[in-house]
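ugh finaly. both done.
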Amino acid sequence: MDTSNLKNKLAYKFIKNQIKKTDKTGNLEKFKPKLIEHVGILADLNLFNTYDFTDKLAEGLGLEHKDLKVMLFRNTKEEDKAKTYDIISHKDFGFYGNIKGESLRSFVDTEFDILINYCHVDHILSQVASFRSSAALKVSFKNEEFDFYNILLDIEENKIDTFNNELTKYLKILNFIE
């Protein structure tokens, strides 16, 4: 029995309720400005099967590729070319946004300096993973509905290089990268 639609609906309800409860100023107290050294990345497997942008991102941030931790979402049973990255799916989530998978649990518990969510804004499980993440700074594409991110960039979701260039520019201005 496929429970993915039910999980999505319950996860959406969970995250909306949590956002209502969250004090908007609390997000900033957790973040202490410092140079970015460790980056968490959430992305859709389909994106990585067509274009692995992590080398360019690492270069733009002045980091080594090993400083990036990538978690890919598999929405279907598609073939994956991204064997070097952790891959998760609906099975790693329980109801109401609970996390069941060990690799996903480890990912959201890691205190990244920055978490970048490249998933489509309608991908509710990536929003849950972002919300539950212990990352100090959270970044995504512009999203009217989920306002728990620290930085939202108003760029088309298929313009990954433009997104990364803009993000790099802002992080340099804020002195988070050199």
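ok and the 2nd:
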Amino acid sequence: MTADAKPKRRAISKKTRFEVFKRDAFACQYCGAHPPGALLHVDHILAVAAGGTNVIDNLITACAPCNLGKGARDLKAAPQSLADKAKEVQEREAQLAGYQAIFEAKRQRIEDETWRVLGYLYPGQNTVPRDSHVSVKRFIERLGVHAVLEAAEIALGAPIGHHKVWRYFCGVCWRLVRELDGTNA
């Protein structure tokens, strides 16, 4: 390489990025910023321009402002190109879409589980009282579907009239909630 040639920058693999983030506890090692308030980068301790490589011992977690401003300029004065801003927005959007997908999947799972329990408690009925739907959903969120299904089985197996099954079911669930909270009063 001639004196004028710059070292070639090589992309850092996603696996290596994750290992660096994990090692550094997902926090900027310069200022302590962490997600969700900061977009993290992997920074070279010894810059590529100065001969630094992508070995893990030469990499460190940095938030975007610290990484972009680490040069000779003041951190607040580091300009961000339009392309870099677009890339950052795209990354934030991808992270947000993933985050929303996880919560949507959870919401759909709980909804499906709610109707499964309601099918036991209200067999053969196409409609159920709204407050029953809401209550079962909340019990599932607190106790998990298996505990709620077991409570439904207990209530349905109790020697009581069918019109009292719902109240008995709720009583069993509330007892489980109190046990879970440690307020068994």
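summary for the 2nd one i guess: The beta strands are 40-44, 59-63.
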